[in-house]
Design a protein that fits this description.
With about 130 residues, the chain is an alpha/beta fold. The chain has four helices and five strands; from the N terminus they run E-H-E-H-E-H-E-E-H. Strand 4 and strand 5 form a beta hairpin. The longest helix is centred in the middle third of the chain and has 16 residues.
Length: about 130
């Protein structure tokens, strides 16, 4: 299911473990590219700043198409996932690679702030192209 941010909805702990933390469950099915960083938006439907963050995340998803994966987690539906990830307030954006948190942004941020964070993660991983 696609969310308002444009990312895929994570609807279970198992799905988060498999798609974001990259924990294998024995199946070969990998819906997300395991080599790409994953941007995770923690939000809730009632959260005003989260609604303001959705278009920013959608623009970043388009700008970094084929460079990052984007997923969204409703903290109302999966509070244990948010708690385990250290999320204390929403919106929170975390960038993961190979199951490890590479960066965390708390609050509603401008596109350029989020783009800098994505650029830094891609650069640290050697995935940033100079032509950007």
């Amino acid at each position: 299911m696609v969310t308002k941010s444009g990312g895929r909805l994570i609807s279970s702990i198992e799905q988060f473990d498999k798609e974001v933390l990259k924990n294998k469950d024995g199946s070969d099915e990998q819906p997300l590219d395991p080599t790409l960083p994953v941007l995770v938006l923690f939000s809730a439907p009632w959260c005003g700043p989260c609604r303001l963050t959705n278009p920013v995340v959608k623009e970043i998803m388009k700008q970094y198409q084929n460079k990052i994966e984007v997923v969204e987690i409703s903290t109302d539906d999966l509070p244990e996932v948010a708690s385990d990830a250290g999320v204390l307030s929403i919106p929170t954006i975390q960038l993961y690679h190979e199951g490890k948190v590479m960066d965390t942004i708390v609050g509603c941020v401008a596109k350029n702030v989020l783009a800098r964070s994505v650029d830094k993660v891609l650069e640290d991983l050697g995935l940033l192209e100079e032509s950007m």
